[in-house]
Predict the structure.
Amino acid sequence: MNYNIAVIPGDGIGPEIITEAKKVLDRIGENYGHSFQYTEVLMGGVSIDATGVPLTEEALETAKNSDSVLLGAVGGNVGQSNWYNLPPHLRPEAGLLAIRKGLNLFANIRPAVLYDELKGACPLKDEIIGDGFDFVVMRELTGGLYFGARHTTEENGVRKATDTLVYDEKEIKRIARWGFEIAMKRGKKVCSVDKANVLDSSRLWRQVTKEVAKEYPEVELTDMLVDNCAMQLVKNPRQFDVILTENMFGDILSDEASMITGSIGMLASASLGDTKLGLYEPSHGSAPDIAGQNKANPIATILSAAMMLRYSFDLEKEADSIEAAVKAVLKKGYRTVDIMSESMKLVGTREMGELIKAEI
Ligand code: NAD
């Protein structure tokens, strides 16, 4: 098959890590008979320098017309770069919000995988992590408390601030469907996380999720209160497959989940909408402190590319083979500086990309 991928290298380490992800995708293409065409899209600081805005209409159109989008990272050194003298809507990160909105992406998936080889980076005890864990946090991205009406008033000298948390059943249904779809491609377990003992929006979330579950009889659905989930993530993370939750709970739980995996350079992510077109990117930023030094870990971006194959293109075997290659390279003891430990072999960005490619 032929796939058109919009590629956004962005700023800082973005171009370096994207180069390695493309190398790996090209090897997949050769081995499995696919062709990946890349169209480069300017976004972030590089776009500001070239066009005056962080994402042009044409750039967004190119992304919309692609089969999927692969993003490195955007942004510069906040204290030093001139980009941050601009008003907020013209800064590099505004490009991220614009592309997510423009592509109507409402579901965010962040895998939390602890590889056996990187157990040392996990802050949990050995008896808790066992031989590692592998789950995803699926977060609703465009509704709930962060998007509800808000205002601050003052009555009789007392300041009062109000935020509103609203979800309608359509918003819940569409994210729940993605949750079950992803579970079908994984361990067939969904844990829906809410605060149904207090919040009406959570009670609706629970009802609608149960209704959607009827369409997926093979998937086991459980409910968990968000406070309990926060505890279970550090007590027994191995119980989870897909954690499905609303925007604010997902914001907090996905950060907790990434902390227990250790390194930021390993964390992939995907944002999805109503169609197969998704935005795939590492969870980390543009790391200006190490940009251009061949030090960045490209694995999060390479694993994001694997997610693109799995979720946007339904290329399961191909995605599996990238993930297996990453594991094999770690098993052989190769490490970038962020995941380096004693007696391991230190490699740079390019070498890590080459090693993973060679395993495929
Ligand atoms: P960051 O994630 O870029 O870096 C945090 C630390 O982790 C740094 O020490 C960095 O060197 C290290 N690091 C990050 N990715 C790494 C990798 N792949 N390999 C090895 N080390 C890695 O976060 P920050 O420093 O807070 O932000 C830097 C810039 O990135 C800012 O302009 C910020 O706005 C932007 N940012 C962009 C995105 C995005 O594009 N999605 C996300 C977060 C931050």
About this structure: Residues 55 and 98 are 7 Å apart (CA to CA).
